[in-house]
Amino acid sequence: MARETTPSDLTITPRDVRFGRGATTERWWMGGDPIATAFYNALSATFPKGEAFFVESVRAFREGADPKLAGEIKAFVTQEVMHSREHVAFNRRAHEAGYDLKPLEDRVDWRLDMVRSRPPIAALAATMALEHFTAILAHELLRDPRHLAAADAETAALWRWHAIEEIEHKGVAYDTWMHATRAWPRFKRWQVKAKVMLLVTRNFLVDRSIGVAQLLAQDGMTGPKIWAGMFWFAFARPGMMRKILGAWASYFMPGFHPWNHDDRALIADAEKALGGGIDRAGAPAYA
């Protein structure tokens, strides 16, 4: 049943966890698969600057929010700051393994500069769309353990921890958008939301594909066969992009809300799987 609101009993809990400090990450840490490794490395390259942008965009519209939403925005900001911290550390290990992520980071800067040149509500709309994207990717990552089965244990734990929190705060940007556009006609709100999601989707697919190809080129892998391999990985096997298609399309439906699908059970299961690696009290579980 569609709820069209964030659950009243949802608690967004920042989990202060550190991963991989003092460790060395193998160049092809995803089971020796360069394409799978490049896919996740390219995603990680976007997170520090991208999540800082999300925080900036949501905080710009927190004034006048009801106490529940205000508290969720605060928790969202704390989670995103820690995500940025851990992906800075992960990206440093990727650099130590021999990858230059700067071209990917420069493209993120270029995209964000374009969004920042528009009114702040455009940044919030882009954040809302990208938060839905990350939430459905996180859902698929936790739903099917095969996605990270070949990863080294510490890196897999990082991605599962991140996915847990992306699911948990998946309604914050959307609820902030509803607060910020509360005076808009319903059709205008849907129209802007839909147009921005289509633009964000195009840019996401183009930019991440370019980023993956750039990383593979650093391994000396170029040409049509590599692009075919990238497509196969994303849309065939394991096919994460194909598997999120239905959840992506739901964004355009009347009455959509990120919590229409309550997937908190995935959070509970993932926390159990991580065992002692998650400390909900806030103390680092990894030194």
TrEMBL record:
Pfam families: Metal_hydrol (PF10118). InterPro entries: UCP07580. This is Metal-dependent hydrolase.
